[in-house]
Amino acid sequence: MWAHATHAAEEVAGFRAGVARLGLVPIVVHASYLLNMASPDEGLRARSVALLSATARWSAELGASAVVIHPGSCADFDGGGCVSRVAETLRAAFAEWPAGVALALEQSAGGPTTVGGRFEHLMDIIAALGGDARLRVWLDTAHAFSAGYDLAHPEGIDRLVADVRRTAGWDRVAGVHANDSKEPLGSRRDRHENIGEGLIGREGFRLLLRHEAFRGLPFLLETPGFDGEGPDLENMTRLKQLRDATG
Asked: How do residues 172-186 score in pLDDT, each as one tens digit?
């Protein structure tokens, strides 16, 4: 919905105390899926800026280090035009942006109208904003697989890392959404699966978690859950077991 979240002072204090007690870092907020920074509709882009700005403000209150967004989509996709609109819209959002909060552009599954299916899109957005240090990149394993990176094998992981380094830069990567994929390699379709139950598979996640480039990055779940209720302990346990597996 377009209405932004509000939090009472006692809620904020309780949340921050719980985060400190449990050592849950980093805290990352995913912005609304309604945002569309690439839309040719000026009114929609203005609403997107307003909602993103509000999200950033309350994210800062909660102690979050980053807000993740999907850059957007446009039916008249021509690469450059859409990317330029994203940069222009983000420039407006940065006019009033809280200190200490990064904005992470999420890689997409590569659908024909979406920005972010190629890392060159994200590189061009960052360049258009003068390399603003607040701009980061957020990876998604299901999106990467659907965009053509074969994360089930070492060569595919190496190609992903090389492409990010060549374009946006690996130092810009803030984290990873860890999701298996229901859709086949290169399908350009975004459907998440539980860890080890999709086409990336357990071996793919074992390789990812043990790859030098991914060490130290936060992995956040967006899986459907084994009970259909979203990310759960079983998915988290599987990731930890694969991370710690030998061989």
From this structure: 999 999 999 999 999
Give the Cα separation of 71 and 121 in Å (integer): 9
Q: Which helix (H) or strand (E) holds 220?
A: strand 219-221
Question: How far is the C-alpha of 72 from the C-alpha of 124, rounded, in Å?
Answer: 14
- Please report the pLDDT score of residue 78 as a whole number: 63
How many CB atoms neighbour CB 93 within 10 A? Answer: 22
Amino acid at 137: V
First to last CA, the chain: 46
Token pair of 230 as six digits: 């979203």
In Å, how far are 179, 227, 234, 237, 244 from 230, measured between CA atoms?
A: 11, 8, 11, 14, 24
Query: For a pLDDT cut of 90, what percent of the chain falls above it?
Result: 90
Q: Is the model's pTM score more than 0.85? A: yes
DSSP states of 129-196: TTT-TTEEEEEEHHHHHHTT--TTSHHHHHHHHHHHHHTT-GGGEEEEEE-EESSPTT-----EE-TT
What backbone phi and psi angles, to 5 degrees, belong to 106? -85, 135
Structure-block tokens of residue 107: 């890689």
Pick from 154, 74, 139, 133: nearest CA to 108: 139
